[in-house]
Amino acid sequence: MKDYNNHQNGSSQGDLVHKWTATETVEAIQNVSKNIREYSFKMRETMKTLRESGAIPEMADAIREASFAVRDTVNDINETTKELKRKGAIVDTAGAIENTLKIAEESASTVKDIATDAGRVSPHTTKAIHKGVDLVKKETNHVTGMVVKDLKTKVGVR
Question: What is the mean pLDDT of residues 55-78?
Fold first, then answer.
């Protein structure tokens, strides 16, 4: 352990400690006391003004009304989600989208088969139909994904 009395580093220890005289200490205490009195007076005056202005009850009423609004909104959301669940709206919608995607994929596969058959007859037609089928598949998957994602977000499913 260092002996701070005998080995003080003037730049680190000496700067951190200021030795006050008795007069400086008394003046500092008097300044603190004066500040306490001033702030206490200001605090009393502020509270008196707030009380007389009616701002405190007004703020309390505003907070109460805001809490009622939040409560009512949460209750409405809760009832709506329960109703959607009870009716099966989300599950039915997701199922319909899934079936639509499956049917669209089957249709795309059928069109692709037709294009392959037609390709034997006309190679230019085949390319056009394949591009169309690929585009329909891509767009169907994209739209279905967006709808399912949106539904999951609205219901809170991850």
Answer: 93
